Structures are given as C-alpha cells and as structure tokens.
Amino acid sequence: MRIATWNVNSIRARQPLVVEWLKTTEPDVLCLQETKVVDDDFPTEDLQRLGYAVEMAGQKTYNGVAIASRLPMSDVSVGLHDDDEDAEKRFIAATIDGVRVMTAYVPNGKSVDSPDFPRKLAWLARLRQTLDQGATAEGDVLLCGDFNVAPEARDVHDPKRLEGQILFHPDERAALAKVLDFGLVDAFRIHEEAPKHYSWWDYRGPMLRRNLGLRIDFIFLTKSLAARSGRCWIDKDVRGQNKPSDHAPVIVDLE
DNA sequence: ATGGTAGGATTCCTA
C-alpha cells in the first residue's frame, strides 16, 4: 500500500497539479492539508474520476483536511477528541485496509511570542490525548501531515539561526516528541540519516533555488507498520513545477 | 536590518 501526505495550500488552486501527480505517483491513499475550501466546493469529481473516494473536513478560507483513497474507507472520524463544534478543521482519520490512517494540520503558531504559540503546544498535547483515547501503539496506526515543527537540527537549513524561532523552538520539539512517545517512528528516518532533506520551502526569496527549507511534513508509523515500511521519500520535484504548493508530498510504501 | 510570495476574501489575514 502506497500512502502519501501533502499540504496543498488550497486544493482548488492546486487541482491540476494534484491530478497530474496522482496519475504519475499512483498512491492508494493521499492525505491532504490546507484544502481551504468548504466540502461542497471541493473538486471531488476530479479525484473520483481517478478512482479515489474522498472524506473531508473543510472550512472557508483556512485549514481543511481530507483523505482520498482508492481502497475502501471506514470509521471516518473528524476532529480531536475534545474539539468544540466550531473548532478549526485540522484532523481527520479513517481505517483503510486495516490501517488506522490519521492526518493532521498542526497550527503554525505565527511566532513564539504570539498567543497562537501556546495554542499550538496545547493542540499537540490534545493530539497525543486523541491517540491515547482512540488507538493503541500495538495496532497498525499511521499518523501523517503538516506538523509545523522541525524535530532536529538536521531537519532545518540553518539550525543556529533558526533555534528558538517558530517551527524550531525547543517547546514545540518537546510537544512533538510527546506525540511520538505514543509509540511512533518517523518513516523517512528509517532509511535516511542525512541532512538537507526538506518538505517545505518559503515562497519568498530564493529559498527553493538554494534548498533553504525545513522538514516539517511527516509520516509516523507504529512498530508493526514500521516493520512493513519500504521506501519513504519526499517528492521535491513537484515543488519546482508550475504553480506549486510551498510543501512537497511525502510518500511511503508499506509491504 | 525584518525584506520577499502565494491564496483567499476584501483592504487584510495567514502562512
């Protein structure tokens, strides 16, 4: 089973690129973040034409997540365990071929001195609680998405300058580590130790051209799935195509 | 010394 995650930064703006990418990459499952659209305006038919059903949790203008799958989906669940009715749409889960697939769009936090920063930390703590309440580390659980945190120095292009800034602050690294303490491993790091692999490059300036990015998009696996993981890679090429998202897809093959 | 671009809804917010 091939599973991918991609922050598309608007599914409507990215629709041609996503369709072409699905045709060439042929994942069984594509988890999407920042769809930025209400469910009625999601380009569902364009994905159905390629054989994918879509489960979504959308909202106007911001956020929005979805799971597109060409294998049957069951037990769809939207939101964190204690989300209010009007909570931002940042989390959706479904069971696919025995795997509990969860995808998250973690709050960015804006800056470390913003009120959004403690809210980001609290959201990650609530994500851990959602895992504890709805899954077990002994099961086949895959948690993927845009986590807006780079876990290690090798995941950022300038760790000295970026240390303590948003996306690379010790408090958010600790909050992410607590999520992983549920019993998850980073699929990309199973087979790749090297630095300079990133999943996001700012649109502004020469960031992509100089490969000045951050690795903030992940596929996390429980032990049983990690044992089944083949290749895991970041499709950087699609970041350089016409009208790209600022994020690249991350893909894993499970045996 | 704090730029720059992109998307979406409306002269600004978020990333």
Note the main attributes of this structure.
255 residues, DNA-binding, alpha+beta, Deoxyribonuclease I, Chain A, 6-stranded mixed beta sheet, 7 helices
Question: If you had to describe this structure to a student in words, what would you say it looks like?
Answer:
The structure is a single chain. The radius of gyration is 17 Å and the shape is globular. Strand 6 (91-96) and strand 7 (99-105) form a beta hairpin. The protein is 23% helix and 25% strand. The model has no long low-confidence stretch (mean pLDDT 98). A 6-stranded mixed β-sheet has the order 3-4-2-1-12-11. A 6-stranded mixed β-sheet has the order 5-6-7-8-10-9. The chain has a domain at 106-230: Endonuclease/exonuclease/phosphatase (Deoxyribonuclease I, Chain A, 4-Layer Sandwich). Helix 3 packs parallel to helix 5. The chain has 255 residues and is of the alpha+beta class. The chain has 7 helices and 12 strands. The protein binds one DNA strand of 15 nucleotides through loops.
